[in-house]
């Protein structure tokens, strides 16, 4: 591995054939920063679509009768909501978006290892998303069997919509695998000479762990969905009990991907928070080494907990017990990370700006979701609340309260690097306040609803649950309103915001050691060697006195 | 006068623990308990609720305190302390969750066993095969491949002499049908007596459904092609909802029924009223 001379790179790099200015964001650009922004903007558009679908759900549930949309449409809406939010918003944004933008900076590279594969990975997403959404209009009916697509329901609902759904998820899974391979190669092989593995910013470790999960588990989902499509199109009997198939096998295969998918959505968020907290608290990241080991522990454990989604299914007692214990133990490495973040804040000089507000709210939300998660891992507890609104509340605390809050924190943190301008703080705080109140109002009451008898994925419910459902719907409305200050902020400050300068936060990680926005090859000169990405509080001498220390690679 | 830090820390920890216990055991968020299994479940729930409250409030207080106490004062451009880690401290907060999780795991295993979750399946299947035979002994050779999963077998050892009431449950889009093989009754509602173990033999006709009675704290998927079993003993007369908890199609939300728990005499009269007269044709 050698570091290419920038002038050589400029000659061999096809960058000069690429459009300049705003047009490059609509092109097959090979620049990791352009691809990162493409992921972010594309993901945000799908976030708005998924949010609109959530609005339909919460409007329907504002009254106990199924009276807003037809029952079939309601099932289509909940299926699309889940699929869009997971596969088109969270996974692409926290992996592809911030990953593509930041990872080459963090390892001291000028681009990702495979720039063309990178562009292909992104450009699979818009067609897959359009395909998915259009199935509602084109195929007559979109998929109606939930994002889990359990057979035999997925075999008996309108076939065209289900097949389009499978096709779309296969494309998105392919995109995800391409991205994962690219991240692993970039982190392991493109590190600047002198940069040891244990000197990388934490987000690199998070993305390495995530990418390992992506590469190991996504192919299983792909294979499963291909088998499911054979059952639908060719009337094979893999999962069709009428033909001797086994429906529980599908659940095992599906969750073998879809539980790690939770970590694919959450680990990158852990990494991003580990970057944001030290900068605004002016303190080193507490316990770097234990943070790295806990990421890897989560990766290993994350692969052996899937059947906790199937405690009420055809699951024998020994399996229920094993998956209870394995799932509970994931709380240990996760707990380490949260205590380390608290210790990072302790004794710091904390600037409570929008980025920090969202990052700290993430800690609160995720701890809440984690505690209900440990409870759900216990078979006897789960047998009562499985497939109820308790679970809906729990996983929204993880994926929205966890990951989406971190996406917003990251946006406030890195927007100055993306554009060279700072986002407006007042609008940012308004956005935070509306999101935080709306989110808790929407999802906290759902735990009570689930405990007291409201199953998930229903268009109608017992009238005694009306009040809390209306509270929840008001919360959802606040969340919808909260996107308005965000959108105004992002659009207005892109043109009129305060100039940020290269390093508005006085951060030490390498992306801040270049101009904002950075040049095509990231640095005009040689890439800087940053061996202490969290060296806050040290004497001004930022040059590492002994570069060979901790050198692993 | 400034109190020593150790004292402040131990007093606030003790206060937090007491608050957690109080919340866990006094804030009732569960529906009525109407099966022998429900109080066991509620005990676990209260323990978890207490532990969760302590952890959540503890972390919340630490976070808010940090944000206030260590806020950046205007004009301060310096850095915080250069503390990069503290191994003993990190070992402590690895060990505490590990111990808590281990305790929770062992406790819920105990609860699960008391709920009958660990009872070997063949006990039950033997009963299924031998119908009314009350012999509790069975050999492992008797495991039929049919029954896949269930819960609540042998809930209460003292009730062995009370034969379980078998009911066949068929789930379909969008209804449950209950058949009493001993009395040849078919009903859209489940009627059971207080105090007698009931054993549901469940199978779905089309897609996956789930049988859930919130007041019993029990749920089991009803799966096409794979019979499942659910046992319970109702402890409180009344009418409780049976809810389908697995997405099964457009009318999933409307797939509901009732379980009517009778006093034993009332159950006998329901049985007598509904048993079909011997056919004379």
What labels would you give this structure?
heterodimer, A: 553 residues, mainly alpha, Cytochrome C Oxidase, Chain A, 18 helices, disordered C terminus, B: 281 residues, alpha/beta, Immunoglobulin-like, 2 domains, six-stranded mixed β-sheet, five-stranded mixed β-sheet, 5 helices, 11 strands, elongated
Largest interface: A-B, 96 and 83 residues
H/E series of chain A, N to C? HHHHHHHHHHHHHHHHHH
What percent of residues of chain A are in strands? under 5%
Number of domains of chain A: 1
Given helix and strand content, the structural type of chain A is mainly alpha
The CATH architecture of chain A would be Up-down Bundle
Query: How would the global form of chain B be characterised?
Result: elongated
Largest sheet of chain A: none
Describe the strand arrangement of the main beta sheet of chain B, using strand numbers: 1-9-6-2-3-4
Q: Determine the CATH topology of chain A.
A: Cytochrome C Oxidase, Chain A
Termini gap of chain A:
11 Å
Mean pLDDT of chain A: 91
Poorly predicted spans of chain B: 122-146, 153-159
> How many distinct helices of chain B?
5
List the helices and strands and how they pair.
The complex is a heterodimer of chains A (553) and B (281).
Chain A: H1 6-12, H2 32-60, H3 71-107, H4 115-123, H5 125-134, H6 153-156, H7 159-189, H8 202-233, H9 247-258, H10 260-281, H11 288-302, H12 317-329, H13 331-345, H14 354-377, H15 379-385, H16 389-419, H17 425-451, H18 466-496
Chain B: H1 5-26, H2 37-69, H3 87-114, H4 121-130, E1 149-151, E2 165-172, E3 175-180, E4 185-187, E5 190-193, E6 197-204, E7 209-213, E8 218-222, E9 228-233, E10 238-244, E11 256-262, H5 264-274
Parallel strand pairs in B: 1-9, 2-6, 5-11
Antiparallel strand pairs in B: 2-3, 3-4, 6-9, 7-8, 7-10, 10-11
Helix pairs in contact in B: 1-2, 2-3
């Amino acid at each position: 591995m050698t570091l290419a001379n920038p002038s050589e790179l400029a000659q061999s790099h096809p960058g000069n054939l690429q459009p300049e200015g705003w047009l490059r964001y609509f092109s097959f650009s090979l620049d990791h920063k352009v691809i990162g922004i493409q992921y972010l903007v594309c993901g945000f558009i799908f976030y708005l679509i998924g949010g609109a679908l959530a609005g339909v759900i919460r409007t329907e549930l504002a009254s106990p009768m199924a009276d807003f949309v037809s029952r079939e449409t309601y099932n289509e809406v909940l299926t699309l909501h889940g699929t869009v939010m997971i596969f088109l918003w969270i996974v692409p944004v926290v992996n592809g978006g911030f990953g593509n933008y930041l990872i080459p900076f963090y390892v001291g590279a000028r681009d990702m290892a495979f720039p063309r594969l990178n562009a292909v990975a992104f450009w699979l997403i818009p067609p897959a998303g359009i395909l998915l959404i259009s199935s509602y209009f084109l195929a007559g009916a979109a998929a109606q069997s939930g994002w889990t697509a359990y057979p035999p329901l997925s075999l008996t609902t309108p076939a065209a919509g289900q097949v389009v759904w499978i096709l779309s998820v296969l494309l998105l899974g392919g995109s995800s695998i391409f991205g994962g391979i690219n991240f692993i190669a970039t982190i392991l092989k493109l590190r600047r000479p002198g940069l040891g593995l244990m000197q990388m910013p934490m987000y690199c470790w998070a993305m390495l762990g995530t990418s390992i999960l992506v590469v190991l588990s996504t192919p299983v989902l792909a294979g499963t969905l291909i088998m499911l499509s054979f059952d639908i199109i060719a009337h094979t009997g893999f999962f069709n009990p009428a033909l001797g198939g086994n429906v529980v096998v599908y659940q095992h295969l599906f969750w073998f991907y879809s539980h790690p998918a939770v970590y694919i959505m959450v680990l990158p968020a852990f990494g991003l928070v580990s970057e944001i907290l030290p900068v605004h608290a002016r303190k080193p990241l507490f316990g770097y080494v234990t943070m790295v080991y806990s990421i890897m522990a989560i990766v290993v454990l994350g692969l052996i907990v899937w059947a906790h989604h199937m405690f009420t299914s055809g699951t024998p007692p020994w399996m229920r017990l094993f998956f209870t214990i394995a799932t509970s133990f994931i709380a240990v490495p996760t707990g380490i990370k949260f205590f380390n973040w608290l210790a990072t804040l302790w004794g710091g000089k904390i600037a409570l700006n929008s980025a920090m507000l969202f990052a700290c709210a993430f800690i609160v939300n995720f701890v809440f979701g984690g505690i209900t998660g440990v409870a759900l891992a216990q078979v006897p507890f789960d047998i009562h609340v499985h497939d109820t609104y308790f679970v809906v509340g729990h996983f929204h605390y993880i994926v929205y309260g966890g990951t989406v809050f971190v996406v917003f924190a990251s946006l406030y943190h890195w927007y100055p690097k993306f554009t060279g301008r700072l986002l407006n703080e007042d609008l940012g705080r308004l956005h935070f306040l509306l999101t935080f109140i709306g989110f808790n109002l929407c999802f906290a009451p759902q735990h009570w609803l689930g405990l007291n008898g409201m199953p998930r994925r229903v268009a109608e419910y017992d009238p005694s649950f009306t009040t809390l459902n209306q509270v929840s719907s008001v919360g959802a409305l606040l969340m919808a309103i909260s996107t308005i200050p965000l959108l105004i902020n992002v659009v207005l400050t892109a043109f009129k915001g305060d100039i940020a300068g290269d390093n508005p936060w006085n951060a030490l990680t390498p992306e801040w050691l270049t101009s904002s926005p950075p040049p095509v090859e990231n640095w005009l000169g040689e890439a800087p060697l940053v061996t202490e990405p969290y060296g806050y509080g040290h004497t001004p001498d930022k040059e590492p006195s002994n570069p060979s220390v901790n050198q692993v690679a | 006068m400034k109190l020593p830090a150790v004292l402040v820390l131990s007093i606030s920890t003790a206060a937090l623990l007491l608050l957690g216990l109080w919340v866990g055991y006094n804030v009732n968020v569960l529906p009525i308990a109407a099966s022998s299994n429900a109080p066991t479940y509620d005990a676990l729930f209260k323990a978890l609720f207490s532990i969760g409250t302590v952890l959540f409030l503890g972390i919340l207080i630490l976070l808010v305190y940090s944000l206030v106490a260590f806020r950046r004062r205007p004009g301060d451009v310096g850095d915080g302390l250069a503390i990069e880690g503290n191994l003993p401290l990190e070992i402590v907060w690895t060990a505490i969750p590990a111990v808590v999780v281990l305790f929770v795991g062992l406790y819920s295993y105990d609860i699960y066993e008391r709920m009958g979750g660990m009872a070997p399946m063949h006990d039950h299947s033997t009963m299924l095969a031998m119908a009314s035979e009350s012999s509790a002994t069975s050999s492992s050779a008797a495991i039929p491949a049919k029954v896949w999963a269930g819960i609540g077998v042998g809930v209460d050892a003292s009730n062995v002499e009370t034969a379980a009431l078998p009911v066949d449950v068929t789930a379909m889009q969008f209804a449950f049908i209950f058949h009493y093989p001993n009395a040849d009754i078919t009903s859209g509602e489940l009627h059971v007596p207080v105090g007698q173990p009931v054993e549901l033999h469940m199978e779905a006709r089309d897609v996956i459904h789930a049988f859930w009675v919130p007041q019993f704290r029990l749920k089991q998927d009803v799966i096409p092609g794979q019979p499942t079993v659910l046992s319970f003993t109702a402890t409180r007369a009344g009418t409780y909802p049976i809810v389908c908890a697995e997405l099964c199609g457009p009318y999933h939300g409307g797939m509901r029924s009732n379980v009517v728990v009778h006093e034993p005499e009332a159950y006998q009269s329901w049985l007598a009223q509904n048993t079909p007269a011997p056919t004379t044709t």
